[in-house]
Write a structure and sequence with these properties.
single chain; 211 residues; alpha/beta; FAD/NAD(P)-binding domain; three-stranded antiparallel β-sheet; 5 helices; 12 strands; 24% strand; elongated; binds flavin-adenine dinucleotide
Length: 211
């Protein structure tokens, strides 16, 4: 198929923990977006878990303190990967309880068909424990769906397409919109706005070919 212009809008996927129980309880208490789901009634005044230790996980944990009774931040290392200012804010927050050196090995409880807690393993001692919670927010990163464009379209080190001047890419006539070029917001409304900008750019590009 031949075309004179193209808008890339292939989105980004969430990194998963890779647990069967995580998959089975997705949308039943397991979620990948605090901004999208944090205010749901099922999470109000309940203990919540955030998995991760980067800026995104810290942002999610801080946001969730508005809704949850307590927010456990489960991280596999003994310090946060997030920026110092973000780490300091998180560690100073009375509602956030870090769980260091630990990984989630199972989301409970598949039998009840809802989240009631997580089984956690301490990587230093191998001790297992259960953290009771009603929601698990997995914040271990996103993967932009851009591999198909590698070596053709400019991407950053994480694989996000790097726009040049608005929605343009390094290839004339190829434009980009949405989560595949947005490592910050990744929201429907921002993706829609970027799509609108890319469409305007593509139309202008086609007009320029006819002059
Ligand atoms: C559970 C959940 C809840 C959310 N809730 C909200 C919310 O409440 N508010 C909000 O603003 N945002 C929310 N979001 C985020 C929002 O959905 C995204 O920011 C938005 O959909 C991004 O739009 P996009 O067009 O960039 O990508 P997407 O909507 O992800 O679309 C990308 C499309 O490209 C296709 N594709 C991928 N690779 C290829 C390929 N190689 N060839 C052809 N097609 C391909 C995919 O199949 C998909 O159809 C939520 C996201 C999730 C997962």
């Amino acid at each position: 198929m031949q075309t004179q212009t193209l808008i890339i809008a292939t989105g980004a996927g969430h990194r998963h923990l890779g647990l069967e129980s995580e998959h089975q309880l997705e949308n039943k208490g397991v979620t990948y977006c605090a901004t999208c789901d944090g205010a749901l009634p099922m999470f109000r005044n309940q203990p919540l878990v955030v998995v991760g230790g980067g800026d995104s996980a810290c942002e999610e944990a801080l946001y969730l303190t508005r809704f949850g009774s307590v927010v456990y931040l489960i991280h596999r290392r003994d310090s946060l990967r997030a920026s110092k200012i973000m780490s300091d804010r998180v560690l100073a927050h009375a509602k956030i309880k870090p769980v260091w050196d630990s990984v989630v090995t199972e989301v409970l409880d598949v039998k009840q068909d809802k989240v009631t807690g997580v089984r956690v393993k301490n990587l230093k001692t191998n001790a297992e424990s259960v953290v009771d919670c009603s929601g698990v927010f997995v914040a271990i990163g996103h993967v932009p769906n851009t591999d198909v464009f590698k070596e053709v379209i400019d991407r950053d080190e994480a694989g996000y397409i790097v726009p040049r001047k608005g929605a343009a890419t390094n290839i004339p006539g190829v434009f980009v919109a949405g989560d595949c070029a947005d490592r910050v917001y990744r929201q429907a409304i921002t993706a829609a706005g970027m799509g609108c900008a890319a469409a305007i750019e593509a139309e202008r590009f086609l007009e320029s070919l006819n002059q």
